[in-house]
Amino acid sequence: MSWLTLSVHRYSMALLAYAFAAIMVGTTLPTPMYALFAEDLHFHVLTTTLIFAAYAGGVLAALLGFGRWSDVVGRRPVLLAGIAFAAASAVVFVLADSVPELLIGRVLSGLSAGLFTGTATAAVIEAAPPAWRSRAAAVASVVNIGGLGTGPVLAGVLVQYAPRPLDLSFIVHLVLCAAAAVAVLCSPETSPREGTLGVQRLAVPPEARSVFVVAALAAFAGFAVTGLFAAVAPSFVAEVVGIGNHAVAGVIAGSVFLTSAVAQVPARTMDPGRAVAAGCAILIAGMAILAVALHFSSLPGLIAAAVISGVGQGISFSRGLAAVSDRTPAERRAEVSSTYFVVAYVAIAVPVVGEGLAAQAWGLRTSGVVFAVSVAVLAAVCLVAILLRERQPARV
After folding, report:
1. Domains of the chain (ranges plus CATH)?
2. How far is the first Cα of the chain from the last one, in angstroms, to the nearest whole number?
3. Distance CA 359, CA 239 (A)
4. Per residue in 285-320, pLDDT tens?
5. Is 300 exposed, middle or buried (0-12, 13-18, 19+ CB in 10 A)?
6. Which residues lie closer than 8 Å to 388 by C-beta, 6 or more apart?
């Protein structure tokens, strides 16, 4: 084996982590641009939320239809397919001049994310050198969520301060995709290539169901919040607060993901049940601040709500998955994890479309407050359920 090959293998975890982040950046790039697309194509918040929700549909289709393929055909072919979908999405957005084209672009982006989420996580973990083996799962999670958070920030700055506001971000992402493809091609294959192709099965074994219900409800609440900020935060900034700066909107939308990624690092050492409870309590605080910020049209309040909610979402989601995994037999963890992620991506799509419908009926401010109260109630139910379980011998 040549010196170059040894060097590439040594850094394969970093190369795959870069590819993971680069693709996830593209999935949230459109967030600061929705207002511009709406102005050019004459649509309102409901259409924005439907365009955003199309992404979750693509993710779910890829997770369910191709979730097991990388175990059979290898990690690299599936990752390269994900990169191809991401690049196709960027091209569609550059050329888009109608709502159906925006929907297609979001579905393609969702397919890329769905292919990457499980496959890149496994590849990063498998490529980790011995010194990083215990931290590889956390690295994969932080890279995933961090990429989601970087997308709106990058696009917001480019839209506000660079030329060609509806094109440049996607052109930049095409360059990132090309570099991601090189990174994947330079990395060794890590899959044993075993098993048969098929649809990903969704199920939860009886011994994990009670824990799963609580953890999944907490995940639903947290991902509903990320969906709200990713789809509607720019509208909050422009229409409720009255600030038309796209960079500010991008920072607010991105901060909920970035703080989620940061919070997951120290949360790794927390007891899963108590961590989910803490995450729910923090999420309730974030939603209370959001409701007050919308009522008083406060930009600092919106920023604080995004940051605090991101912390709560990151802790409750990551440790909720750990709690479920602890109760699940090893041979069934893949299907349980897939079920957990399906709940999360349904939460990204469905509540935010409800927010769009409510905004048409009641206005953006009122619908946002109702959304915040609803999520806080759901998080409170999870918190009470966990506290009641803590009093019993069998703990979350």
Report:
1. 10-186 (1.20.1250.20), 202-396 (1.20.1250.20)
2. 48
3. 12
4. 999 999 999 999 999 999 999 999 999 999 998 888
5. exposed
6. none
